[in-house]
Design brief:
Distance between the termini: 29 Å
Helix content: under 10%
Radius of gyration: 20 Å
Number of helices: 3
Order of helices and strands: EEEEEEEEEEEEEEEEHEEEHH
Low-confidence stretches: 1-27, 190-197, 287-316
């Protein structure tokens, strides 16, 4: 397994651990916090590109979960997509954490020439874990962009997800079903429950106005999706052609998922919102003796673990 210290992006700053039992407000990089609820914890550090650990029932399910941002507002640091917390771009984040399971970061961009506030980006996170049998966990991420100027500006937001279901980088298979419910499915080790134990993760997306389908989405390897020429970190993202996959990972590169929930011009003094929820459903790994004779019917025999928690907290 690739060590967690090997990240797709590393920004030059040190991580600071932040407790969650009291109100926290901080204005300096790095911003880090831990969300906790029920069977789950999620750790965020903007020097490690956002969320880097999401533990459900003691097993980490995440390699990287990041937000990329692009705008044509004047004098912004880069014309292409940048990590939203990139120093020199949006590095004045204010973290507010009132409860253990929620956190909010507010970035305000000021034109360096006029010193006027042009726009505000608010990232809200909510972790929900549990269910009666403690198999479920979901992480909701909402992006709010407030145009503080009288002028219209274009804004694009891409959410990047790189899951390591069952704590293993290899064998995951990702696909997108553009029909309801939209849009993501990632299966661990082709659904072999006896190996890692995570059945699937789903990703739902909602934008302001009730649209349940993001502007674009793509599945590929991290190398392609984070390509400095054509991927998220380039000046364009031509890969967002609504590719539905599936893509199967190997021992080093698991599939990555990218969604563009916001891609529009926002008039002056108006707001746009994009929202995603990643929902994980894990299962109990049966005893080896219980698997004998089941063969390829293990997945269906266990019913994708849905039957045991159909009424669980409406997490999915």
């Amino acid at each position: 397994m690739v060590k967690k210290a090997i990240k797709k992006f590393i920004l030059p700053s040190l991580a600071a651990t932040v407790g969650v039992s009291v109100l926290i407000v901080t204005r300096v990089l790095p911003i880090s916090f831990i969300l906790a609820d029920g069977n789950s914890t999620a750790e965020f550090d903007n020097s490690i590109d956002g969320f880097y650990d999401w533990t459900v029932n003691g097993t980490n399910q995440l390699f990287q979960m990041s937000t990329f941002f692009k705008t044509d507002a004047p004098n912004f640091c880069d014309s292409g997509f940048v990590l939203i917390e990139t120093p020199g771009c949006l590095d004045n984040g204010v973290l507010t954490q009132n409860t253990e399971d929620t956190a909010s970061i507010t970035y305000t961009y000021q034109d360096p020439d006029t010193k006027n506030d042009l726009f505000e980006v608010i990232l809200d996170y909510t972790l929900t874990g549990g269910g009666t049998k403690r198999f479920l966990s979901s992480l909701n991420q909402k992006v709010t962009i407030n145009n503080l100027s009288a002028n219209p500006y274009n804004f694009e937001v891409i959410k990047y997800y790189n899951l390591e279901l069952g704590g293993d980088l290899g064998g995951d298979k990702a696909s997108i079903d553009p029909t309801s419910p939209f849009p993501g499915l990632q299966v661990d080790n082709d659904g072999d429950l006896s190996v890692e134990g995570t059945v699937f993760a789903t990703i739902t997306s909602n934008t302001t106005g009730g649209n349940s389908t993001p502007d674009g989405y793509e599945i590929d390897t991290p190398t392609n999706l984070l390509n400095p020429t054509t991927g998220i970190t380039g000046n364009s993202f031509p890969g967002l052609q609504n590719n539905t996959g599936p893509v199967t990972g190997d021992s080093l590169e698991e599939p990555a998922l990218a969604y563009r929930p916001i891609n529009q011009q926002v008039p002056g003094d108006e707001t746009v919102i994009g929202e995603q929820t990643v929902a994980l459903e894990t299962v109990e790994i049966p005893e080896p003796s219980a698997l004998i004779g089941l063969g390829g019917f293990v997945l269906s025999a266990l019913g994708l673990s849905r039957n045991h928690d159909n009424q669980d907290d409406n997490l999915l």
